[in-house]
């Protein structure tokens, strides 16, 4: 028995293209086994005898029933040359539909959910995939509109080889239409009034299984429950066809803990602890608290949430927070207590509005610490769209923020500040990604000196302009030559990334912009650099070498460079 390499077999199929050719090659055994180990001449001849019928069977779904196949099997340069199997296919004309017998009978025969005409009509080419699609759509129309007992007394396609014509028969008996009845919950955790707000339908709605799947998904997504079972009690339906629904839910574990380590050039090594309490009481209150420790940025925050209205979209939040920063331009504490209402609106936008009471004790550069307190009304709109939130091929993130204070109302000065943050990711040409981001801000105030240090705009760092330290860029005091921050911000970035091998890729990028203030002279800063990326399970690990092209270089030669390391998702 000769081995496959010694035998040598080539298979050629001509006369077909596109999907027809692909289907033939997928079902043609001699083509699939052409490189098989241990293939011998008797096996090749047996496969060759089967090939013409296999080709005809593969073309039947495309309405081709008069297929002619010229098949040859010969050896080139005997006795040791390779064998060549040739199949010249003449598919002929496709069979067309000559008659359509489409009937909808029963209580729902006049329901507009069912089309008046079958999706395939007389004269159409008989494509079996189209028939199966049409049958599936009609079955879904029946179940999605409450006809749970529908039947298909007759559903078939008959092909007349003599007349070379097909007849489609599709009969649907709808049966009675059912409706959703009262929903009861079997669980021991939350108030029934809160759970009723998870419903997207009222008793009496047409029975649609998708509505019940959506309810199950919403309850599981709340994290209150580890298991949710939806039980329709069809046997208990009333005279109007209403089916009672029972929801059986098993409470989730109350606590979830997480420890993490990370690194970013802006903050240095980072250690984090996270405690999430999934539920606190029967009204669905929950909280999450997090502690982050790093040499340059540390914070503690507590996010206490109270569901309101639609509990999957709306909540009140009480958020105390303490942050310590030690950056290139400022050092000190900011303590905040936020009260806000957050709502998911149409189009996927999340709107959050409320009040922050802030107290900060921050020293700018080498100046004495400034202690300020203020009440800050604020509102923001944010939206994230992506095909993969960790390693994104196509998506964007955008956020608008508007905030301000009123002098004399728990604040020393009045100001109004707005900011737009945008990042966009798009894969193209299979191996390339283009990444763009911008950060724009403006503050209306009499002077930058009227703004607390944490409300001024700065630039520089991993997520701003690489090549500079975090918050190192901005309006500079001409006397002290130190960054004081500004009332305006305009920063942008463009990055081209190419996959190299597996999860590894390389990038070229440029960053540009600065923080500005009318009372100070300030130039646009710009940088360029190269980077290496590793698409890890928790997000990209990004290593960038950025050259500060606009930075003064007293020594000449290469511009000053800075290494940036960031770990995290794209958006």
Automatic annotation (TrEMBL):
The keyword S-adenosyl-L-methionine does not apply. Residues 178-245 form the POTRA domain. Gene3D superfamilies: membrane protein fhac, membrane protein fhac: a member of the omp85/tpsb transporter family. It holds the Pfam family POTRA_TamA_1. Residues 374-556 form the Bacterial surface antigen (D15) domain. InterPro entries: Bac_surfAg_D15 (IPR000184), BamA/TamA_POTRA (IPR010827), D15-like (IPR039910), TamA_POTRA_Dom_1 (IPR035243). It is found in: Cell outer membrane. Residues 10-91 form the TamA POTRA domain. Keywords: Cell outer membrane, Membrane, Signal, Transmembrane, Transmembrane beta strand. The keyword Membrane applies. Interacts with TamB to form the translocation and assembly module (TAM). Belongs to the TamA family. PANTHER family: SORTING AND ASSEMBLY MACHINERY SAMM50 PROTEIN FAMILY MEMBER (PTHR12815), TRANSLOCATION AND ASSEMBLY MODULE SUBUNIT TAMA (PTHR12815:SF47). This is Translocation and assembly module subunit TamA. It comes from Marichromatium gracile.
């Amino acid at each position: 028995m000769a081995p496959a390499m010694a035998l040598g077999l080539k298979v050629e199929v001509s006369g077909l293209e596109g999907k027809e050719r692909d289907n033939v090659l997928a079902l043609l055994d001699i083509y699939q086994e052409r490189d098989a180990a241990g293939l011998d001449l008797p096996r090749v001849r047996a496969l060759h005898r089967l090939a013409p019928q296999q080709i005809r069977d593969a073309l039947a779904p495309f309405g081709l029933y008069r297929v002619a196949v010229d098949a040859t099997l010969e050896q080139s340069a005997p006795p040791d040359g390779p064998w060549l199997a040739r199949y010249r296919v003449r598919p002929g004309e496709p069979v067309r539909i000559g008659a359509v017998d489409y009937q909808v009978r029963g209580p729902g025969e006049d329901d507009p959910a069912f089309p008046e005409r079958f999706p395939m009509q007389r004269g159409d080419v008989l494509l079996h995939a189209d028939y199966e699609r049409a049958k599936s759509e009609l079955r879904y129309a029946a179940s999605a509109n409450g006809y749970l007992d529908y039947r298909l007394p007759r559903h078939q396609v008959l092909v007349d080889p003599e007349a070379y014509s097909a007849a489609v028969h599709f009969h649907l008996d709808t049966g009675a239409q059912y409706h959703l009845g009262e929903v009861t919950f079997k669980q021991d955790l939350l108030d029934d009034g809160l759970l009723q707000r998870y419903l997207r339908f009222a008793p009496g709605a047409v029975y649609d299984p998708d509505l019940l799947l959506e309810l199950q998904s919403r309850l599981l997504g709340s994290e209150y429950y580890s298991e949710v079972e939806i039980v329709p009690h069809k046997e208990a339906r009333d005279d109007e066809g209403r089916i009672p629904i029972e929801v059986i839910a098993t409470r989730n574990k109350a606590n979830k803990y997480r420890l993490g380590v990370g690194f970013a050039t802006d903050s240095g090594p980072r250690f984090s602890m996270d405690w999430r309490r999934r539920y606190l009481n029967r009204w669905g209150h929950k909280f999450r608290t997090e502690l982050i420790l790093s040499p340059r940025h540390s914070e503690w925050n507590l996010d206490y949430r109270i569901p309101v209205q639609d509990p999957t979209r709306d909540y009140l939040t009480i958020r105390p927070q303490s942050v310590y920063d030690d950056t290139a331009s400022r050092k000190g504490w900011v303590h905040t207590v936020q009260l806000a209402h957050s709502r998911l609106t149409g189009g996927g936008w999340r709107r959050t509005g409320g009040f922050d009471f802030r107290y900060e004790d921050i020293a700018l550069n080498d100046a004495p610490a400034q202690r300020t307190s203020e009440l800050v009304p604020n509102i923001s709109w944010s939206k994230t769209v992506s095909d993969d939130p960790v390693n994104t091929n196509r998506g964007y993130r955008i956020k608008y923020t508007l905030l301000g204070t009123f002098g004399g109302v728990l604040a020393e000065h009045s100001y109004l500040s707005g900011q737009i943050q945008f990042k966009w990711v798009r894969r193209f040409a299979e191996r390339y990604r283009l990444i763009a981001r911008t950060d724009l801000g403006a503050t209306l105030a009499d002077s930058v000196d009227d703004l607390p240090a944490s409300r001024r705009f700065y630039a520089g760092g991993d997520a701003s302009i690489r090549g500079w330290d975090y918050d190192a860029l901005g309006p500079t005091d001409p006397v002290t030559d130190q960054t004081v921050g500004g009332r305006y911000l305009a920063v942008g970035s463009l990055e081209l990334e190419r996959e190299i091998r597996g999860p590894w890729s390389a990038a070229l990028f440029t960053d540009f912009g600065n923080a500005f203030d009318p009372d100070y002279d300030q130039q646009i800063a710009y940088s360029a650099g190269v980077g290496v990326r590793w698409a890890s399970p928790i997000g990209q690990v990004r290593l960038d070498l950025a050259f500060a092209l606009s930075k003064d270089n007293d020594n000449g030669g290469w511009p000053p460079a800075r290494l940036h390391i960031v770990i995290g998702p794209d958006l």
